Amino acid sequence: VTKLDKYTGEQIVALDVLGKTKGLLSHSYDVDKNTLLSMIKGTAVEGYKLVELENLKKAADLLEPISREGKLKIIIDHCFDVKGVGTVILGKVTQGKVRVYDNLKLVPKGADVVVKSIQMHDDSVEEATSPARVGLALKGIVPDDVQRGDLLCMPDTVLVSNEIELDYIPNKFFKEKIAENQTFLVNLGLQIKPAKITSLNPMRLSLGKPAAYEKGEICVILKPESASIRIVGSGKIK
Predict the structure, then answer these.
(1) Nearest alpha-carbon partner for 1 in 20, 28, 32
(2) pTM of the predicted model over 0.90
(3) In sequence order, what DSSP letters do the residues of 133-151 get, joined into one string?
(4) Spans of all domains in the chain
(5) Tell me: the pLDDT tens digits for 182-214?
(6) Which pLDDT band holds residue 66 (cuts at 50, 70, 90)?
(7) Which CATH number among 1.10.260.40, 2.30.130.10, 2.40.30.10, 3.30.300.30 corresponds to the domain 159-237?
């Protein structure tokens, strides 16, 4: 943390609503420690380990990777074409294991793909396990088929819909009133989708484009044009 302002506060709220309870916290010398501690009190960030700035890299290197077993799930953040290779995606294996020649689904598009090769840190490997960061050469799609935040998974393991219902919790720092038929943006992992509120109780959203998700996943409602905090509220998908 290098500055205590509304953006720092918003980042603290974001970490809290997403349930990010483990982490490191460091600040520059011109940030008042007591003020920072008062800002994080009662949030998920309160449990973070406080480390001196010069020790931050060493402390980060000692963190244990968070691995999740289960059905494969890869979140895509980049996709491009490589001459002689074809379509390549970059992303993180957030759950399970991916192997060469796996038959996967690209969602929410629904396209069938085959893993031709896997790279980790520029080395070719036969498989990669959560929480590995990977580059995959894929057969069955072109870069224009892929959006940031799309998922790769085994068939029929992830839900796809443009209608979702949340166990909604309003953000106490967002002071504006919300109403049915208002439009916002929603965040699901790395997916950002336009959404309209169709019901306040229970909170139901109609998305402008289908999203891929799992039940229990946290969805954050955003109002980017807000002059104050942009996080409206959040909730687990029912």
Answers:
(1) 28
(2) yes
(3) EEEEEEES--GGG--TT-E
(4) 6-61, 73-153, 159-237
(5) 999 999 999 999 999 999 999 999 999 999 999
(6) confident
(7) 2.40.30.10
